[in-house]
Design goal:
Number of helices of chain B: 0
Oligomer: heterodimer
Structural class of chain B: mainly beta
Largest sheet of chain B: 6 strands, mixed
Helix content of chain A: under 10%
Shape of chain B: globular
Number of strands of chain B: 11
Strand content of chain A: over 45%
Structural class of chain A: mainly beta
């Protein structure tokens, strides 16, 4: 595709359930980033990948959050035992390489935890 | 700690000029970027400054002073479609640290 895609666009889940969010970066982009954006707030860095390795996981809020990436392609962000405070929009971005100054964002997944 | 401060909201009328300021305090600095985000939309890249001075891209300009840890985004000839949130972001090694965002409302 032409841009970054994310699925699902919306996810409603019950507290305590696990969720998986998917990101398809722009083809050929080696760097992939995950952010969280709470309503009316800025973007909170979670994790980034260079290829399929994650040099910086410092933004993951807790050990309930994990992410993986297959090669230089799809990435999944998994949230286990979801809590209401996990409700937010989860944004994925990609760039040609990590030194690129421009990141291309997907439309996000809006997660609601009831 | 790492922080980027922006005004929470700015209002202006069509055709006017508006400046959105950003001050930052981060452990690393490799450049200052600006992103635009319309309600419900994805952030889109506007500009990037790695060195001091002014960068101009059409109606938008961005300025950086590294000695003052300060930058701004200047929007000229405002249009209704410019109503959106604007985020400054510091590139810290390989990741972006975003500010809290400034909501710009343009009135006719």
């Amino acid at each position: 595709g032409a841009g970054v895609s994310q699925s699902p666009s919306n996810k409603v889940t019950e507290k305590g359930k696990d969720v998986e969010l998917r990101c398809d970066p722009i083809s050929g982009h080696t760097a992939l980033y995950w952010y969280r954006q709470r309503l009316g707030q800025g973007l909170e860095f979670l994790i980034y990948f260079q290829g399929n390795s994650a040099p910086d996981k410092s933004g993951l809020p807790s050990d309930r959050f994990s992410a993986e990436r297959t090669g230089e392609s799809v990435s999944t962000l998994t949230i286990q035992r979801t809590q209401q405070e996990d409700s937010a929009v989860y944004l994925c971005a990609s760039s040609p390489w990590t030194s690129s100054h421009e990141q291309f964002f997907g439309p996000g997944t809006r997660l609601t935890v009831l | 700690g790492q922080s980027l401060e922006q005004p929470s909201e700015v209002t202006a009328v069509e055709g006017a000029i508006v400046q959105i300021n950003c001050t930052y305090q981060t452990s690393g600095f490799y450049g200052l970027s600006w992103y635009q985000q319309h309600d419900g939309g994805a952030p889109t890249f506007l500009s990037y400054n790695a060195l001091d001075g002014l960068e101009e891209t059409g109606r938008f300009s961005s300025f950086l002073s590294r000695s003052d840890s300060y930058g701004y985004l200047l929007l000229q000839e405002l249009q209704m479609k410019d109503s959106a949130s604007y985020f400054c972001a510091v590139k810290d090694t390989d990741k972006l640290i975003f500010g809290t965002g400034t909501r710009l409302q343009v009135f006719p």
